[in-house]
Amino acid sequence: MNFKDILTEQRELFDSQKSKNLKFRKMYLEKLKEVILKNEDLLYEAIYKDFGKSRFDTYSTEISFVLKDIDYYLTNLNSLAKPKSAHTNLANQLGSSKVYAEPLGCTLVIGAWNYPYQLSLSPMVAALAAGNTCILKPSEIAAHSMHAMAQIINENFPKEYLYVVEGGVEEITEILKLKFDKIFFTGSPKVGQIVYEAAARHLTPVTLELGGKSPAIVTSSTNFEVAAKRIVWGKFLNAGQTCVAPDYILVDEKVKDSFLDSLKSYIQKFNYQPESEHYTRIINEKNFDRLVKLIDKEKVFFGGNSDSAQKFIEPTIMHNVTWDDAVMKEEIFGPILPVLTFKNFNEALLQIAAHEKPLSAYLFTDNSEEKEHFISKISFGGGCINDVVMHLSNDYLPFGGVGNSGIGNYHGKFGFEAFSHQKAILNRATWGEPDLKYPPYTDKKLTWIKKLL
Ligand code: NAD
């Protein structure tokens, strides 16, 4: 496959102005919805083959996200694309000012494997809604899901508008040599850096949706039952292979024991067994081996068992963990939950602030001062108070990281903006202009200019 030829064809289509047309955008968004609904079973089967993800999880965390995005843009496209009036300052009277959302052009979306449909198709939908063409490169690690997306999209869409590339590092390295008008990447900070460097060669703008170690702080004033239930759900959803899953817990040492008991009771209640349909498998052997090595048997409070044949790792809680443990040296991205303690709330914030800025952070408390300090004193992409993960499901909030966890954001109108240039236009009348700015300059003109500017 010659990627350069596909991009050339996409550029021709973009230059023809077709993809900017709102009817054209809506027609293809409708078509995508139809194609996804028609092939729902194929998508379920593919992801199940990749890592045993249930239909329930696939619908609730992948397909419904993409369908919701399509519906959002179908409903809101006219208002999102409409030029926005801006105030016109005194110096530019008589005139009017507007901001136009201009499609950036030919875009490249690179997806991650852990939510293969959501993380590839949602940014792709935003790219198309904003009037661009798109080449999508999903992650080769979820190979069946990648193939399913390529099949349903490449069979139903003209490649000069939208094309899915199946491939891994070799293919994406070739693609990254080409000049795109926007690159949207989801994945690890390490690969994010490679993509950023490749984009810099063409001054291509990027959105980087990266990862990191997302903390959950549990204070003594919280409702343990609610905190434990929500953390267990968010941590073990997709077997911990979620970028915004709580990576580790910081709990007030006074309440550590009772909180650990609550965590354990919810893990038991939710019944994550090798035969449970609702418990996803580890994606591949490499990650399975990496995760098993992170489990320090001496520090296991609950769980710790695994079965390599089934790529099953039991939900595992580790206690008495410190920042020197291997499990605290990297993003876990699996069903292992280390629990650290703090003596006072400020110390918990300092522990977080001493490390890279996480993608998410969570706080469980009833104390309003703690809530305020959590928001104002530490930097992280986004998060929740008294919940985990769910901020991502609110399309009215921007989703993205900061520092090591990413650049830029998307979802809802923020996704549209990520793929648009804000073009500023001042439209002036050809009459009614004072002679002030034109030479020759005089002291009198300067006095007036000082007043005006
Ligand atoms: P990854 O960085 O290994 O791969 C992501 C994509 O980059 C894949 O499509 C892959 O083919 C491509 N890639 C791999 N090597 C490359 C190279 N040398 N040059 C160019 N492209 C390359 O990430 P992953 O394992 O798929 O996902 C796990 C990571 O992604 C975790 O850090 C996780 O936190 C993060 N993540 C972030 C979000 C988010 O929304 N912020 C969502 C999911 C995952």
UniProtKB/TrEMBL annotation:
Its cellular-component GO annotations read: cytoplasm
InterPro entries on file: Ald_DH/histidinol_DH (IPR016161), Ald_DH_C (IPR016163), Ald_DH_CS_CYS (IPR016160), Ald_DH_CS_GLU (IPR029510), Ald_DH_N (IPR016162), Aldehyde_DH_dom (IPR015590), Aldehyde_DH_NAD(P) (IPR012394)
Q: Say which species the protein is native to.
A: Chryseobacterium salivictor
Transmembrane segments annotated in the record for this chain: none
Residues at the catalytic site:
E209, C243
| Superkingdom of the source species | Bacteria
Q: Which GO terms describe its molecular function?
A: aldehyde dehydrogenase (NAD+) activity
Is Oxidoreductase one of the keywords UniProt gives this record?
A: yes
Family per similarity comment: Belongs to the aldehyde dehydrogenase family.
- Annotated Aldehyde dehydrogenase domain ranges read 10-425
Record keywords, A-Z:
NAD, Oxidoreductase
Q: Name one GO biological process term.
A: aldehyde metabolic process
Q: What is this protein called?
A: Aldehyde dehydrogenase
User: Sorted alphabetically, which Gene3D superfamilies does this protein's record hold?
Assistant: Aldehyde Dehydrogenase, Chain A, domain 1, Aldehyde Dehydrogenase, Chain A, domain 2
